[in-house]
Write the structure tokens for this entry.
Amino acid sequence: MTLRTVLTPETVNLHLKGTTKEEIIDELLEVLISAGKVSDKDAAKACVLDRERKMSTGMKHGIAIPHGKTDTVSDLVACIGISDNPVDFDSLDQEPCRIFIMTLSPVNKTGPHLQFLAEVSLLFKSAEKREQILNTSDKEEVIKILTD
């Protein structure tokens, strides 16, 4: 399971409009619903918000990785969203986020979920990649930056 296998242009949104954590999560779920990846938005949202209540998925460097385990997917699914404006996401470094990667995985599969999160966290140690992602206007380019 790699970013290249789960991210497609249909699972990239370059202009998230939400101004709160919940609005951003809603928009990301809409991306997954539109791409036919999630069967029940309310159930998926409940699992992501439940995970957020336990500990925020706002990381460092303006990145958040909202995620959860749910029966609304049969395999790991993911999407990426870039916000036009910084959003407070209760991040570890207290900085607002603009890059959001959501992943949902089935309740009974742990391996792909952990592998995906590890791969994502490695990518964003690069300030150059973060800057490229924020400055591109091409969905394919976002995927290329993430997977090269």
Notes: The chain is about 45% helix and 20% strand. The radius of gyration is 14 Å. The chain has a mean pLDDT of 91.
